[in-house]
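U., I forgot to send this yesterday:
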Amino acid sequence: MYLARKDKNTAHFTTCFTALVICRILEWKLKEKYTCEELISTIHSMDIMIAPGEGYIPTYTCTNTTDAMHDAFRFRTDYHITSQKNMRKILNQTKKK
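Result:
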C-alpha cells in the first residue's frame, strides 16, 4: 500500500497489525477450531437490532461458531434481549482484559 504521508503509513500498519492480533487472540480463545476467515465471517453475520426502551435483540442465526464464541467469552447475545445497561457492562468487561 502506498500512502504519501508517514503518519498515514503508520496508522494503516497499526490498524492491520491490531486486526491480526485480535484474530489470533480469537483463534487462541477458541482453541484454534476456527480460522480467522470463519471468525470474521461469523462476526459480520451477527446482527443485533436496537429496540428503544427494550435493549439489543439478536437477529442472526446461531451456528457452532457463535456458540463457541459465547462459551469462550461467557456472555450470550443469541437468545435473549440484552438491556442497554447490561450491554455497557459487557463492553466494560471486555476493556478490562
